[in-house]
Design a protein that fits this description.
- The complex is a heterodimer of chains A (230) and B (373).
- The longest helix of chain A has 30 residues, at 4-33.
- Helix content of chain A is 72%, strand content 0%.
- Chain A is mainly α and 230 residues long.
- Chain A is built from ten helices and no strands.
- In chain B, 3% of the residues lie in helices and 57% in strands.
- Chain B is elongated, with a radius of gyration of 28 Å.
- Classes of the chains: A mainly alpha (230), B mainly beta (373).
Chain lengths: 230, 373
Amino acid sequence: MNGPGSRGRGGAALLVGLVLTLAPLGASARAAEAPDPALAGRLEPGVAAEVTRAVRAARAAGLPDEPLISTALEGASRGATPDRIVRAVRRLAGELERARAALGGRSRPEEIVAGASALRAGIATATLGQLRALRPAESVVVPLVVYGDFVVRRVPPERAASAVLDLTRAGARDEDLIRLRERVAQDIGAGATPVDAVALRTRGAALELAARQGATPASGGSGPGAARVP
Amino acid sequence: MRWRQAVGLALLTLAHAHGAGAEAAGSSRVTAAIGVGWNTSGGGAAADAVGRLPLAAYGPFDLTLAAQASGASDARGGERYLVRTQAQLEYGTRQVGGWLAIASERRQRAERLPSEPAIESRVWARRGRFTLTGDLLLQALRVPQPSIWVTQWPPPLPGSWPSSFQPFSDVIPFALAVEPRFVRLTALTSGLEWSSGRWELGAASGIAVGAGVAPVRLARATAAWRVRTGLAVTAAALSGVPRWLAPELTARPHLQLGLRFELGGPPITHIAAVKAAPPSDWSWDTRSAGGGRVALRLRAPGIHSAEVRGDFTGWRPVKLQPAPDDWWEAVLPIPRGVHGVEIRAGSGRWRVPPGTPAGAGVYGGRVGTLVVE
């Protein structure tokens, strides 16, 4: 039989149970609101909270989150305004998502990061897909890094993409692409125009590849298109 | 049209319009340009040389000393020369930039005041292949004044006139020379430039105003086609500008066709691209130190300290330690992946390490890329 006293004891037990049940939820909610430890002390609380939300969303989506934290810290070091930092982080999150979609869900984090950087430099999403198709199992990090380097050296994005794709299609390895980048950088430093340097060196690299493989590259006109190898 | 001398003038205009002059910002090298060509307002020869020396860096700003010497002569024996030195404070990213300069000029015929420094500034913004520019010039000029014809009675030399002279019906005019007048001139110019591979096109217009002088409209259209490295064919159309204002030999609107020889590398049109480049005697080396650590090494003769930063340091500067043979080194834990990296000497500008691939920075500019396999 349940008297008033037993109801009171039951109510207290229910209250304790409720508190015990909800306490972890409250702690979890507080943890969700707390900024990422890496950001604490480097960013204003409001900015840190915004960045933390973006980081957790990326993590939940299976995207690499370190680049987002790094971007926020980079902004703090460069003295960027809070608004700019938040915009940069959100933009990068979008680029990471697009890069993963283009490169495939099984891409490694460093490939997604390199893909996001290439997207920022102007590479077409379709080109990322083509690159992945040419290297289904191998890493596409170096081709994407070389592409980004060409673009910041003022090679038009479409020419840079064509050079990297053509050589990758011809079987260029990472070392070949790294060597190509070094030679193009040397030529530009010596006064060649970026377009000329890429055209010349891409064709040279294609010839080297063809010689290595015992084949002859297709002949063509001047420019990067001439480096196209079947 | 005068074809007698096929050597064109006004390299000042050509060089500035195409980047061999003031646009060579941020470079420590000497840039020289020699132009030959023809213009529709009389032949002439001209030469222009520009040298630049970076003096110091204050965070994102660079202080540079620039010197320019120009000379021109025409078929009629007219000669002009100009020597200019200027201290220039520059700032630039990939998208926007500008500079402020104090310049001292010395010209033949002293048409300008050599003791009055000119203040010049430029701001620019770039998007894709287009660059929008705005220029401001403040300078004190000595503007020649036309002589005044005076008629008066009695004549200046009484008693010397013939007996037939009739007072009040014949007057004796004479020219009274007027001293040149100092005018503080303000010139504002805006322009749009486009460049792609071999081609450079530009157009600019503006106005120069000063108390007591009629406003002078300025207009210029330029084109250059790079035949090969170090050589470009140039063309320019320029509005007529009074000789006291322009450095050219002619005051009439005219066309110029010419060749531009670039010594010491091509013209530099984007400050950020140059500033990102480290000195040529620096070298950079990275190698695995085991245990997930990477040795970052910079060889930079003559520096007193060096720092590195990147996402692996949370973008906080980390000092490199001196090592033998001008090397500086730090061994840091860097996880596998793609990382941004920058270096600097002392408290100078952050730069992409030499020989390192660069990528487009999230905050503009360029950032070195370090791939750890």
